[in-house]
Structure formats: C-alpha cells, structure tokens
Amino acid sequence: MPPETGQLVVSYVEGFYNPRRRHSRLGNVSPDTHEKVHHEFLTDIEVSGR
C-alpha cells in the first residue's frame, strides 16, 4: 500500500470521528465533553457513596 493511501485513510477517519464534533445521540455535545461529564458524574457517585 502506498504511503499516500495510509495518509488518506487517517485523514478520513480523523475527520469522520472528530472528537470535538457535536453528536445528536450525545445530547448535542462532543464525545470529549460527554466523556468528561460522565467521568465527573461517576466520580461524584463514588465520593458521595450514592
């Protein structure tokens, strides 16, 4: 496979799975924001013992 092909694949994947792009299935927040909020929620539960 020529090196250009690998670069094109990486470019496509990074563009399609952009971690900063908002997603309607995540409440119109980015995957990064969704993970941050989810992690904070789990941390709050562990600390409070709920």
Briefly, what is this?
This protein is 64% helix and 0% strand. The chain has two helices and no strands.
Which labels suit this protein?
50 residues; mainly alpha; elongated
Mind explaining what this structure looks like?
The longest helix is centred in the C-terminal third of the chain and has 18 residues, at 31-48. The chain is elongated, with a radius of gyration of 17 Å. The protein is built from 2 helices and no strands. The protein is mainly alpha-helical and 50 residues long.
What's the layout of helices and strands?
Elements lengths: L2 H14 L14 H18 L2
Binned, the helix content reads: 55-70%
Order of helices and strands: HH
Q: How many distinct beta strands?
A: 0
Low-confidence stretches: none
Rounded to the nearest angstrom, the radius of gyration is: 17 Å
> Oligomeric status of the shown chains?
single chain
| Biggest β-sheet description | none
Which structural category do the helix and sheet elements fall into? mainly alpha
Q: Report the end-to-end length measured between terminal Cα atoms.
A: 53 Å
Summed over residues and divided by their number, the pLDDT gives a mean of 85
Helical element count?
A: 2
